[in-house]
Amino acid sequence: MSWIDPEFPRVATLTDRVGRVLGLNPGMMTGPGTNTYLVGRRDPILIDTGAGVEEYPALLESYLAGRGWTQPSRVILTHRHKDHLGGVEQLRARFPGLAVAKMIHRDTDLPLPIDDLREGHTVYGDGVTLIPVHTPGHASDHLCYFLVEEQALFTGDVVLGGSTTVIPSGDGDLADYMASLRGLLSLDVRRIYPAHGPVIEDGQAKLREYIQHRLMRERQILEALADGVETIPEIVARIYADVSAKLHPVAAQSVESHLKKLAKEDRVRETVARDAPSRWTLVGRTCS
Ligand SMILES: [Zn+2]
To answer: What value, to the nearest 5°, has the Cα angle with vertex 141 and ends 139 and 147?
Structure first.
């Protein structure tokens, strides 16, 4: 199955507590599109709003009507990226007064009003208890939501179905990301509801796989540096040879995040060059 699966269902009732409506924004970064989830046995809470695609509100409404509902009780967001909160304005236009909350953290231009939601502030719906978990790394303001009744986790972009997560070079932080993954392991998660791609049934195994994947990339980067491959484009060409070249600019951001983490740990050093990519070297080796 390809990451951008055209057959991915537009709506789905996954359990009696969780429904899913697709954001209709397929793409290289979003796979089949952003999943928005309706959580609760009645008066459902909506997790994320998609990117603001014109056809989305009608799809959401028809799904709601099919369940005998008229509107979400409130919206909670996983993080500030456009494909998660881009639908806030159109939903407000459709459902006036709809309350929206996220963790407000280093935000500049949010579609206000947005309430601040933090770890420790449990969200209650009909037959559902959602515990926000601060999980920085992909984005500094990222919250996952643990659904107590199902031991399930809404992972936003921290864990995806069918792809690995990008650690953006600006607001992303790989050390934070690894710590977030390790923290989630302690929750004893069964099922994962990712923001992109299908449901993941063995949550614990997927979290461990993600940690292993990052450790593997780190090893590959250290090996590349040991072999004298010193710039990000060269490192990407070497270790992402099996990944489509279209994704290499994104891979470059992840490699940069790895290198920044290693630099913080004093294991590599950056030599900035004018009009050329920085050269990265292992600490203890001299530049040749
Ligand atoms: Zn994101």
So the answer is: 100
Query: Is residue 64 over pLDDT 60?
Result: yes
Cα of 52 to ligand 1 centre, how many Å?
Answer: 15
Ligand 1 centroid, distance to 83 Cα (angstroms):
7
Distance 75 CA to ligand 1 centre (A): 17
Question: What is the model's pTM?
Answer: 0.94
Give dist(CA 285, CA 174) in Å, integer: 24
Residues in Cβ contact with 241 at an 8 Å cutoff, skipping those fewer than 6 apart: none
Tokens of 210: 């993600």
Query: Cα(139) to centroid of ligand 1, in Å?
Result: 7
Residue 68 CA to ligand 1 center (angstroms) comes to 31
Confidence category of residue 286, pLDDT binned at 50, 70, 90: low
The C-alpha atoms of residue 56 and residue 87 are separated, in whole angstroms, by: 8
Q: Are 47 and 145 in contact (CB under 8 A)?
A: yes
Averaged pLDDT score across all residues of the chain: 95
Instruction: Give the residue from 52, 150, 135 showing the smallest Cα distance to 92.
Output: 52
| Tens of pLDDT, residues 112-164 | 999 999 999 999 999 999 999 999 999 999 999 999 999 999 999 999 998 88
Q: How far is the CA of 82 from the centre of ligand 1 (A)?
A: 8
CB atoms within 10 A of CB 212: 10
User: Ligand 1 centroid vs 78 CA: distance in angstroms?
Assistant: 8
288/208: higher pLDDT: 208
Ligand 1 center from residue 197 Cα (angstroms): 13
Per-residue pLDDT reduced to its tens digit, 73-96: 999 999 999 999 999 999 999 999
